[in-house]
Amino acid sequence: MTITCPKCKRADQIQKVSAIYANGTSNSSHTGRANGFGYSLDGELIAVSGSTTTYGSSQTMLAAQLAPPSMPKRPHWIWFLIPFLVLHLASFIAWFAPIKKSYKILLLTLGVLSILVGSPSLVLTYGTIVFFAPILINLAIYYFALFQQVHTHRSKLIPLWHKQMAEWNLLYYCSRDDCTFIPRG
pLDDT tens digits for 161-177? Predict the structure, then answer.
């Protein structure tokens, strides 16, 4: 079966999109020696040498335009850390807000002392439990949210990307008409 362009109805300028992308994209790396000068901790000028590796890639404009769909990326870890810290701060304030200032100082001191001393009897004091409860609660919330995000990512976005990749793998390109198409028939 000859594949023809739906616009010009010709087959002489037809190529598979994945082949254009593969032929128009190259990656390279180079490992070599590097020499230079630096200063020691004593302030003396010293000669240094070592090995270095550089990486590079090049791509034709057409290959860049016909690139496959990008795989969905997970959100950066900082987006989980910020709510975690905010929740921790809020719960810490909530735990200690109704307590008088002198009790707050006592509880914090007991918590720090029990950590420093490492005595089991002090570790189980009320001060330590109150001090670490917000941290443990927030860790549980954090990991639950992280699990939910990963589950959503895998259950919704990855199958959609697989579908887009399957469609991309069917695409052909006509250089005469500068168009992509999926052959019918």
Answer: 999 999 999 999 999 99
- List 181's β-bridge partners, or say none: 172
Beta bridge partners of 37: 47
Selection from 13, 22, 16 nearest residue 60 by Cα? 22
* Contact residues for 128 (Cβ-Cβ < 8 A; gap 6+): 110, 111, 114, 115, 122
Q: How many CB atoms lie within 10 A of CB 97?
A: 8
Cβ-based neighbour number of residue 14 at 10 Å: 18
Q: Model-level pTM?
A: 0.55
Q: HSE-up of 104 (CA within 13 Å, CB side)?
A: 10
Cβ distance 87 to 60 under 8 Å?
A: no
Torsion of CA 174, 175, 179, 181, to 10 degrees: 20
